[in-house]
UniProtKB/TrEMBL annotation:
<protein>
    <submittedName>
        <fullName>Uncharacterized protein</fullName>
    </submittedName>
</protein>
């Protein structure tokens, strides 16, 4: 792999990781809200 390709690959990886992070965060929030709604 050339250096340019590696740079693009790393940038894409970061974007994907951030997106996954956001999804997990939202998932945790909705799970917590759901649990709270069930408990009360």
């Amino acid at each position: 792999m050339s250096r340019a390709n590696l740079g693009v690959f790393e940038a894409n990886l970061l974007v994907i990781l951030e997106a996954v992070n956001e999804l997990v965060h939202l998932e945790l929030l909705t799970d917590t809200e759901f649990a709270a709604n069930v408990n009360f």
